[in-house]
Task: structure prediction
Amino acid sequence: MGSELAQLLVNGLVAGIVLAVPAIGFTAIYAVLRFPNFALASHATIGAFAGYVANATLGWPAWAAVSVAFVVAGIAGVVNDQLVLRPLRPAGALTTAIGAVALTIVLENVVRFVFGNDLRGYALPIRRDWQWAGIRIGPQQVENLAIAVAAMLAVFVFLGFTRTGKAMRAVADDPTLAGLKGIDAERVARLTSFGGMGLAGVGGMLLGLDTTIDPLTGFRVILSVFAAAVVGGLGSIPGAVVGALTIGVAEELSLISLAPAYRTAVGFVAILLVLTLRPRGLLGERAY
Amino acid sequence: MRQRGMILSRRALLGGAASAGVLASLAGVVRAQPAAIRLGTLNPLTGSGGSYGPSMRKAMEWVAQEVNAAGGVNGRQVQLFSEDDQTNPEAAVRAARKLIDVDKVAAVMGTWASAVTTAVAPLCWESKTFLTTVSGSDTITQLPHNGYLIRTQPNTHLQIGKLGEFLLSLRVKRVFTLAAQTPFAVPSQKRLQEILPRGGAETVGSVIYDKDKTTFRSEVDQALRAKPDMIYLNGYTPDCTILMKELFKAGYTGAKVAQGYAVNTKLLGQLPAEVTDGTYTATPSPAVESAGYRRLAKVLGTDDLDPYSCQCHDHISLVLLAVAHAKGEASGTAIRDHVRKISQGNGVKVDSAVEGLKLLAQGKDVNYEGASGPCDFTEFGDILDCKIRFDQAQGGKFKFVKLI
Result:
């Protein structure tokens, strides 16, 4: 039982840290643009496929392909936001969120049109897991963990120590005040779309590295991403990390008493609990 | 120009009148012949079954052509009305309504997806139209269809029964099931629990997982804790791909078995051979040795016929033989009442509709055994027996193991 629990914790932490990457993207976009951008699902897929092209077609190693995933998903994010979502924003957050859902379905079908419906696997050797004391962890998982942690550190450094990062936080805090101080809100919005969707792309690829990718890769994970962001506190970046770890570990630990088929429900029970008991999320909104 | 147009139109008018006359006289000829036997085909030409539908339809059209060329059924020609069910229950219901209400067909043949068959079946039994299907879900023949339905696809009970027999022949002792959440997950597990103890083996547990998850590490851990020597992967291609990878990573070295539609050549192409090697697959098999199969393979231009085209070939053959046995009465009720009189029993074994029709015309009894198999039915419309083909993945390719 002891080793079973430890194994579930390890699985949960690994799943949670990978989930944290797109969750940070989601919550950052929410903080600046004030709407839940569900188009993140298709951008995770776009990133996963961009990384796939770099890795499987061009033969780049995984860590280099991840940067391609970031850049391609980020550019797609800016273009789609400017063309589709920005004109919807004056109509309110709900309209924009609905537009984002429609956009994600369209983009997913574009990916399907280009790459087809087949499953694809990255060109990586499948290695046996390391095992000790009855607990196992895969070399690929450790690599994913490292990439995810590096991406998160980069985000924190960017937001905490760079001028643009501080400008972003200012807009998230109070757009009017930021405007008075001469911060170009539109530029910040574009940067946020780039960074947020770029992180989604990295998340999509990290998920695919350990499994396979298809046009629904992002769609499958968006609800867990949303749950992580809400549980941690929408708009809070450390909150997204805490939320993702909570969801990851809770989903795994639920297996002690629940059949795996009900695992998906855990995230939603967590959303309901948090919204009822602590509506601003575990860390509260706007915690940096 | 206008005048020229007038002349032309006058000519056209004259021509039209003349051809109307010819048509009218032709109609007289047509009227003199007995009315055609009207049958409907309802196949998935598009949607997820779209890779099978066109060939299923072609198989039925070929049988109709052959029968018509040989003089029809009791002197009546066969006329097919074909619709696309789009692998979608709503589209299928619209198409079936047209076939039943407008085209007045006696039988609807060749529905593929279980959801489509379940939606179309009530229209058929309400209107006393016969329905033949290749859907496999256990629940289909449990519908209150009053005998207006037969299927040639083995149900879960039959398929898993054979799988159990196969596993016993491999002398495995401890079987664990990893199943996607589907309507057949629980019935499959129950059936294995019935069969395995007969040969001294047991089921040591099962996990039903949400197939849309991206990782199954904990499910795999759960399976390995039971220390199985055989794991049955009862899912679809995407989840089986991930499961096989994870079983390999976790260091599992025991045997694996899966359904042929899940672990297919596409999956083998995705994964390194060291991950897939040794995996067994189970696939309902047509009667590949039969003359009916070989003839159809030649007509459809392939050495490797899919089971559904073979079954559709048999659907129309059975329907036409039943009509002939009912002295040419082409109604759903006549087909229902006569289909078992030509598909099973002590009659002369035949593997084609043309041959069977000849013998029936001579007053002989026939027992149809087609390209898909023996085509013997229970009172509920299930087939009594079907061959299941077992293959094993070796070096990224499938090698035939045995037929049970």
